[in-house]
Amino acid sequence: MEVFFQALVNGLLRSGLYALTSIGLALSVGVLGIVNFAHGEFLMLGAYLGVFLFLLFGLDPLLSLPLAALVLFLLGMLLYRCTIKYVLDAPEINQMLLTFGISVFLQNLALILWSGDPRAINSTYRSVTLHFAGVNAGMGRFLTFVIAFSLIIALYLVLTRTRAGKAMRAVSQSRDGAGLVGIKVQKVYLYTFGVSAALAGMAGVMLSMVLYAQPAVGLEFTLKAFCIVVMAGLGNIGGVIWASLLLGVTESIVGTFIPQGSGWSDGVFFILILAVLIFRSRGVGQWFAH
Amino acid sequence: MVRSLKTYAVLWLPAGLLALALAPLVADPYQLHILILILMSATMALSWDLLVRTGQLSLAHAGFFGLGAYAAALTYSQLGFNWWLSFLAAALAGGLAALGLGMITLRLHGMYFAIATLAFAEVLRTLTLQINFTGGAVGVTLPAIFGGSRVAAYFLVAVIFLICVLTSVLLQRSRWGLAFQAIRARQSVAEVLGVNTIKTKLAAFVISSIFPSLVGAFYIHYVTYIIPYEAFSLNTSVSALVMAVFGGIYSTAGPVIGAVVLKVLEEYLKSVIVYGYTVIYGLILALVILFMPNGLLGVMRRAAGSGRAKQVFRWAGGRKRAETPD
């Protein structure tokens, strides 16, 4: 039973990063209507940024969080300005091919620049362990969970309480309608893409704090984030949280209780995607049926 | 430049066939090896294009390539199939997998299909690493096909390539080609016009997936050894689709031209950049989508510009204009 609770807690803690990454993806897909295959690469770049800030300046990963957010925010906006903007009216397949190309480019650029070896931030967050009622949790993982969900709550408040957030939601509901009531749609797109990248970048820093940075890690998170967004139904923030918890906990339980489980748990997300596509949960297909 | 449809068929086809047939006589073993690689890539790129014609983006070509390779290798070594039966098994495995995956995903919007295919290819690798009879991370080894005769191997891959070209041309010229085009332009309109859109997309997906499985089967027989990381490498899907997009999608000639150009470039680049040469493919993909979405064929067509040239390009399946967005 103790093993079960430990697995449960591990899964819960893991889901924080999933939720933070997925919510950025959900935001960009929901508002811009573009499937961003390069979303995980923002996370990968954030992870390397965290590693290098730590190695070069000894910067605490928690302090490099806002820095990574800023850098990725600017990078996301730059990418939008230079590429995404020009395919907004192109066929959907061109949009997907473009973001896929960017993803391939960034992933392999990282491979050339920083090699395929995993790099990690070896700070004290790794070594300190918290104990509670017979269950252990790494300090870093616990902080990651708390920060991730704090950021998500903050995002939720921005989306519901501020003018900028309301503009984002308006554009996601109807691009033309939002334009008609005077919202600058292009600007909303620009900032949304930047925020989406910033969220992934922060998740990346925390990833290198508890796990490691590697060129291929972006693709893994892109796939898992897609899984979560598909499970949640697009534009559903509450759904993203539940879906992240489900994925994290299922992976952790599969990894704990099935022999050679850590390998099998990498396949959990695919089973979940297929299951959702088969049963077509609420929201799936509604958002993009023009 | 080709002048008309007639000269195209009468002159270029026999010339191409003759060149394919005579190549082993003039090429040295290394050049022959490169030719084999080019034909494999051209088949991958062209078969990927078959599905794109319905407006669906598949990122699973690597998955079917690996599936075919493993199906051929395991039936050959474990079940004692002879070589052509192992190719048949590969085609069957690829076709059935595509049928299953397509039935689940093709009813939904295109983005779900793209995501599911990418996940499918990645998960196949996880699966192959996990189960025992695939040899796990060590991979599988086979004796070289045809006693290691490179010329015989060349003719085998040339036949697979020609079947793919024939399939593509026939599909383009038949009612199917029109149905593909209608679905791509606007699915709802195609439906109203009486096209069974889901079945058409499913058929395109199955046909498009059989070829990478055959190429995978050929690869394992030719190279004699494969590991999961190579069989299901994302780079396989990337190179196939970039070659097609670079040459010009929705056509027979485009993907083939793209494969020839990029494969030669790749062989050169691999000696310059050892790891991560795929970075070039990512860059090409993004730039082509932004600046020449109709690929090399589109550029050539614009350069040619005349009415007759347009006819030829339409016959070869080239698009007239950029697609109208949905």
Topology readout:
The complex is a heterodimer of chains A (290) and B (326).
Chain A: H1 2-32, H2 39-57, H3 61-82, H4 92-114, H5 124-127, E1 129-132, E2 135-138, H6 139-161, H7 163-173, H8 175-180, H9 185-210, H10 217-232, H11 237-257, H12 261-264, H13 268-279
Antiparallel strand pairs in A: 1-2
Helix pairs in contact in A: 1-6, 1-9, 1-10, 1-11, 2-3, 2-4, 2-9, 2-10, 3-9, 6-7, 6-9, 7-9, 10-11, 10-13
Chain B: H1 5-26, H2 29-52, H3 61-77, H4 83-105, H5 110-130, E1 140-141, H6 150-173, H7 175-185, H8 187-192, H9 197-223, E2 225-226, H10 228-231, H11 234-247, H12 253-272, H13 278-291, H14 295-304, H15 307-315
Antiparallel strand pairs in B: 1-2
Helix pairs in contact in B: 2-6, 2-9, 2-11, 2-12, 3-4, 3-5, 3-9, 3-11, 4-9, 6-7, 6-9, 7-9, 11-12, 11-13
Description:
The complex is a heterodimer of chains A (290) and B (326). A two-stranded antiparallel sheet of chain A has the order 1-2. With 290 residues, chain A is mainly α. In chain A, a hairpin with a 2-residue loop joins strand 1 and strand 2 (135-138). Chain A contains 13 helices and two strands. Chain A has one domain. In chain B, 75% of the residues lie in helices and 1% in strands. Chain B is built from 15 helices and two strands. Chain B has a two-stranded antiparallel ribbon. Chain B has a single domain, classed as Orthogonal Bundle (ABC transporter involved in vitamin B12 uptake, BtuC), CATH 1.10.3470. Chain B is mostly helical. Chain B has helices spanning 5-26, 29-52, 61-77, 83-105, 110-130, 150-173, 175-185, 187-192, 197-223, 228-231, 234-247, 253-272, 278-291, 295-304, 307-315, and strands spanning 140-141, 225-226. Chains A and B meet through helix 4, helix 10 and helix 13 of A and helix 5, helix 11 and helix 13 of B.
